[in-house]
Structure formats: structure tokens, C-alpha cells
Amino acid sequence: MPSTPHPRTTRPHLRTVSITGVGAYVPERILTNADLERMVETSDEWITSRTGIRERRIAAPDEATSDLAAAAARKALADAGVEAVQVGLIICATITPDMLFPSTACLVQQKLGATRAAAFDIEAACSGFVYALDIASHFVASHTYDTVLVIGAEKMSSVVDWTDRNTCVLFGDGAGAAVLQNRPNAHGLLTTSLGSDGGKASLLELPAGGSACPASADTVARGLHYLRMDGKETFKNAVNAMVTAAQDALAKCGLTIDRIRCIIPHQANQRILSAVAERLQAREEQMFVNVDRYGNTSAASVAIALDEAVRFGRIQRGDLVLMVVFGAGLTWGAAIIEW
Ligand code: UT7
Asked: Which domains does the chain show, CATH number per domain?
């Protein structure tokens, strides 16, 4: 039990918000480091030592982000014992939507048959799932919706330049989902801490295809429809922001890191995770890591990791869980959940 209850749990008109079901889906196709050695000038040794990534999943050409999202969502609904028609709201976090509009959440709504649900996307890059959890929790806490489906889904392979070794080795496709509801006599989501810095937007961006730089033959010829990243600067900012967000969330709950059973960080790079763990003075066994198998799946990353941590028995009822994320924007965030 946290020593200081979060204000949400002490205001009688607000309900507590629990995650009552989780699910994840990753495409079948595995792209290994050996496969990448045949595509760009790289090596398994470089990728493994610099990132910890050994393989990643790649969606089929006819599989869109909404397909990955719907597959993960079906599992989360089944896990929660909830029918699609009971869902009041679907929030999908993604930077690789099926198209600019309509939203991927609306396409998922149709695929699930969630006929009573409102639906919208949010875009906070790799931080998207924690941002979406926070938004969703307010709808449940305020009695606006009883059941909210939160999804993080990405088809990063559709925005990666497969000739750029600086970025193509890092990313993968997948989706994860969670069902948020009020569960009587449970704590659930205790607090969140979110932040952003648009002054560093250019560190990680996809320049073309929006209103500032509409897609054209010229933008395609210049490769502006692909993701770009300043890896070194992004790395430094990721470590600092994740540590600050985690510390802020812990302080809000009056908790210290040793009270956390499982830390679920954005799976960007093993070296980032090790640096974050060291700065937080967390033990290795507290960290949940699957970056070796999926690479960086952006908004899907912590959602897939949460599902695996639950399925692998790393999180039990009553445990304290810390999710901590960082992404383009820049954006960052942390959430503490009593499971
Ligand atoms: O999701 C949130 C956003 N993303 C991140 O958090 C990622 C943050 N950044 C990183 O993870 C790391 O910066 C990278 C893994 C991207 C790069 O690692 P690094 O240790 O910062 O390498 P570097 O960029 O300094 O590159 C070192 C060398 C360069 O060669 P030169 O200029 O020293 O000759 C690169 O060209 O490694 C070269 N290099 C590669 N070599 C083989 C870059 N990519 C590769 C590659 N294979 N795939």
C-alpha cells in the first residue's frame, strides 16, 4: 500500500480505475539481425551490443495498424471478460495510423463490432500508451464511461527507411491493449506524470505528409516520408526524461523505488534501460525487458510488455507497477498502478 494515497482515491465523487484485462498481438514474421546483415551494412554484433535487439516482428503487407490493434484489443477484452458492445470509448495511441483520417480507433471500433463506443486516436509517439492510459482513466474516474479500451499499436515498418542502417535496425511492429474499469475495493491507477518539450521536436520526426510539408513526388524523392532520428541526442534525452518522470510519479505517491515490484519501461534500447535502472537505483530483476525480441515498437512497446509481464507471472494482484516512457515530441511519462 502506498503511504500517501493518491488524491483520486480520496475524492468520493471520483472512482478508482483498474486495468481489468490486457492483451497483445505481434505479427508472425520475424526479422533477425542476420536478415538485416543482408539488407544494409550492419552486423549482429553491432546491433546486439549497441541496442540489445536480436529480432523484431514485421507486419504482412496487407496487415495495417488497425489490424494489429484489433487483434490485441480482442485479447484484452477476453481477458477482462468484456464484450465489445460494452466498450464506451476506444483510445488508440499510434504514430503509424492506417491513414491521416479517419482515426485508427474508428477502424478498430468497426473491426471489433464495438457499436456503442466513441473512438479517437492520440499521438504522443513512444509515450502514447501512458498518455492514453491517463486520458482514459479520467473518463472512468468521472463516471463518463464504465469501460474504456486503450490500445498502443504501430506498424513502424511502414515508416522506416530500409536503406538507413541508423534507424532500420531499431524498430518493429505490434500492438498491446488494456481494458480500464472501476473495480470496487481496488486501487488501480495511482498516479501519472506526463511531460513534453516541443523545442526538441526535430530530434525524432517524420517530416512529410502533414500540413507543413504535404506529400508530393518531391518529398518522396527526398525520403521525407521516412522517420529520422538524431540517435545520440535522443538517447541522452530519453534517459534523463524517463528518470525524472519515474521519480516524479514515485514522489507523488510517497513511494521509493524498492516498493515497485515491476518496472515496465519503453523498450527503446537495452543501454537506455540499463542507464535508467542505474539512475533510479532499481535492481535488474525489477525491470521487465523484451527489447531483444521485439525491438522498439513505439506506442505498442509498454503495452506489449505489460501483457507479457502479467502472463509471465511477473505481476501479481496487489503488486506496484511502474510504467515509464519516452518518445518523439519530445514526450515522456510515468504511471504507477497497484495491480
Ligand atoms: O523510442 C524512443 C526514441 N529512440 C531511442 O530512444 C533511440 C536512442 N538512440 C539509440 O538507441 C542509439 O543512439 C543508437 C542505437 C541509435 C545508436 O547508437 P550509438 O552508440 O549512439 O551509435 P552512433 O549513432 O554514435 O553511431 C556510431 C557508429 C557510426 O559510425 P561512425 O560515424 O562512427 O563511423 C554509425 O554510422 O555506428 C554506425 N552505425 C552502425 N554501424 C553498424 C549506425 N548504425 C549502424 C548499424 N550497423 N546499424
From this structure: 18-186 (3.40.47.10), 189-338 (3.40.47.10)
